[in-house]
Design a protein that fits this description.
Number of helices: 10
Distance between the termini: 14 Å
Number of domains: 1
Strand content: under 5%
Helix content: over 70%
Number of strands: 0
Radius of gyration: 18 Å
Largest sheet: none
């Protein structure tokens, strides 16, 4: 549970930083650069002190990275400018949790108990109440349909990546290679990162060869660099390492509802950095979500 809470904290920071990056860089470029930064950082540690790219779990973790880091994050970076930070996080986090629970149940046979499902539903309801913008909120309305499509794809990929990671750990355990510690989470995050880099690089090359611009605006590197580094450290580095650590020992139907409270931490950050108002509805939804997290932590 502790790893899931750490994931929530780092992902909330990553969401804010990612939104700022999307203002200055095309999505494909931003995603590829931040993954490369993290791969260098984690790769040095993994090959020096961990197990590099060896192990039975590597092929599945690599595929998990292609799905989650590659397709999923590309879709998420296209969602931010179309829906805004809050609506993007509501959509992706609230859809990813049930998608993952259903997929893990169908594929791995890990069904949540009735109590876990009820508390998880309360968390998602609280997040939805807290973060769905009202009529008076200043939110992007152009390209709304495209934003919804990209957001749904991002949620599906986040769920798929999580379940693939759970499958990878099961395969490794069957071969006598157990993942338990935070250090193992760093190594798993590195192996997933390689898959994300592979897919993102392929897509980047496709855009160049097809002479299709990633986005119409030009990259503003001087303004992008600080946000890009912060996003890389908070999301793909520390956030994903804690995320993988959580998935090593806990089913997705518990981890993802807790991680779905990430947008609640986005509220004060979005208020100070983007000028978004903190509403009474946000407070009520936050109380509901926190109650759900407490219940889920105690449920059996």
């Amino acid at each position: 549970m502790f790893a899931a809470f750490l994931t929530t904290m780092f992902f909330s920071l990553s969401a804010i930083f990612g939104r700022q990056v999307s203002k200055h860089l095309p999505g494909t470029v931003a995603n590829l650069c931040r993954l490369l930064m993290c791969a260098v950082l984690f790769g040095v540690w993994s090959h020096a002190f961990g197990f590099g790219i060896s192990g039975q779990a590597f092929p599945i973790l690599f595929l998990s990275g292609c799905v989650g880091f590659g397709i999923g994050d590309l879709a998420l970076f296209q969602t931010y400018p179309r829906l805004g930070t809050r609506r993007s996080m509501v959509m992706v986090q609230c859809l990813a949790a049930p998608f993952a629970a259903l997929t893990e149940w169908a594929w791995l046979g890990h069904a949540p108990t009735l109590a876990q499902a009820a508390w998880g539903a309360l968390i998602l309801a609280g997040v939805g109440v807290a973060l769905m913008p009202g009529k008076a909120d200043d939110q992007p309305t152009h390209h709304l349909t495209a934003g919804i499509c990209f957001g749904t794809l991002a949620a599906l990929c986040q769920a798929g990546g999580a379940v693939l990671s759970r499958k990878a750990y099961a395969v490794a355990a069957a071969a006598g290679q157990h993942f338990h510690t935070a250090a193992d989470g760093v190594n798993a995050a590195y192996q997933r990162m390689l898959g994300g880099i592979f897919f993102t690089a392929l897509f980047f090359v496709y855009l160049k060869l097809a002479h299709k611009p990633d986005e119409s605006r030009k990259a503003d590197w001087p303004r992008a660099w600080p946000w890009l580094i912060a996003n890389a450290l908070a999301g793909p580095s520390f956030g994903v390492a804690c995320y993988q650590w959580a998935l090593m020992t806990t089913p997705t139907n518990i981890v993802l509802p807790i991680v779905a409270t990430t947008p609640l931490l986005v509220i004060p950050l979005a208020h100070f950095l983007e000028g978004e108002r903190v509403t009474r509805r946000a407070v009520v939804g936050g109380v509901l979500a926190v109650a759900g997290v407490i219940g889920l932590t105690l449920a059996r």
